## 1
Amino acid sequence: MAKKIERRNSTIHGNGVFAKAHIKKGEEIVEYKGELITHAKADAKYHGDLDTGHTFLFSLNEKWIINGNKDGNIARWINHSCAPNAIAFVHEHESGKLKKDRVIIEALRDIAPGEEITYDYGFEFDVPYTKALKAIWACRCGSPTCTGTMLKPKKRNSAA
Ligand SMILES: [Zn+2]
């Protein structure tokens, strides 16, 4: 894993991760690594990320967040796309210990050498989606189905 990819400049955003070799559909590309911190700590320490349009935090499960700022690897440079060629799967550990869950980025389809690796971040922030916030988290993936934002529409309660 991770040998088939490299980090370089991206037209989507800053750095990106690109295939160096052919990657097959379903193949594991790389694990998203980093220090495990609680949601409370992430909120306290990285709340400012909201205003930057960039984050190295990955929500692992209800208890833990992977903090790619510390002990992170190349996976933290993978950009968001509305038409991604990869997906981030949370692999729940058989022991049920939340701390042992892992995130693996896998290919959604065959990926050719030179293609940028992307997945759908699926961000949902617990704040109002103002115009300013949407502008900060604007998507520039360039796909025909681009929604223009990395923010996921909020789910409404269907309590009717
Ligand atoms: Zn897009």
## 2
Amino acid sequence: MEHVIEECGDPRSIPQDLLYLADPSDEMLNAYVDVSFAFVCRIDREIVGALLMMPTRPFTMEIMNISVREPYWNQGIGRKLIQGAVKKARETGMRKVEIGTGNPGVVQMLLYQKCGFRITGVEFDYFRRCCAEKIIENGIECRDMIRMEMHLDEETQKEG
Ligand SMILES: CC(C)(COP(=O)(O)OP(=O)(O)OC[C@H]1O[C@@H](n2cnc3c(N)ncnc32)[C@H](O)[C@@H]1OP(=O)(O)O)[C@@H](O)C(=O)NCCC(=O)NCCS
């Protein structure tokens, strides 16, 4: 079935249970949903994937949330959402796009590197500090935040 990737002017119209796949915290979601650019993937008009990206510093945006419904994983939707966001960042004069993922997120790290992001650092114990409850993913504690970034002037050829 055909995927349609498009910018969405009303991030609040994105189903919350979809956004919870990447970020189950209402407090966090509410802090960025209204100040983000949103992209969605629709199949037969149903939103099956979404990405939220907000300006954080001059010339810098951060992808705060990328979520695809599980039956649609591994079909290239995540990659296309990131490509749409990077294009938008470039069009709005940004120089850098950032993204973070938890230490158990090997699939996410593969995806982001395939899209042109590089690992730039680790925020040790980020999740222990910010989350009341221990998060277990892929059989290990999600404890550290892996920080990644893409410099747009260096990555022009990788977007395809
Ligand atoms: C992470 C997520 C957005 C990926 O979306 P997706 O649409 O499945 O990703 P894509 O199909 O575009 O995958 C692109 C690349 O990622 C990698 N990848 C994706 N899923 C993979 C898997 N299960 N195993 C191994 N690699 C995988 C592959 O390297 C793939 O590249 P390829 O096409 O060359 O094989 C999706 O799995 C998801 O929503 N997960 C839950 C929420 C989440 O973890 N969000 C990120 C929080 S940091």
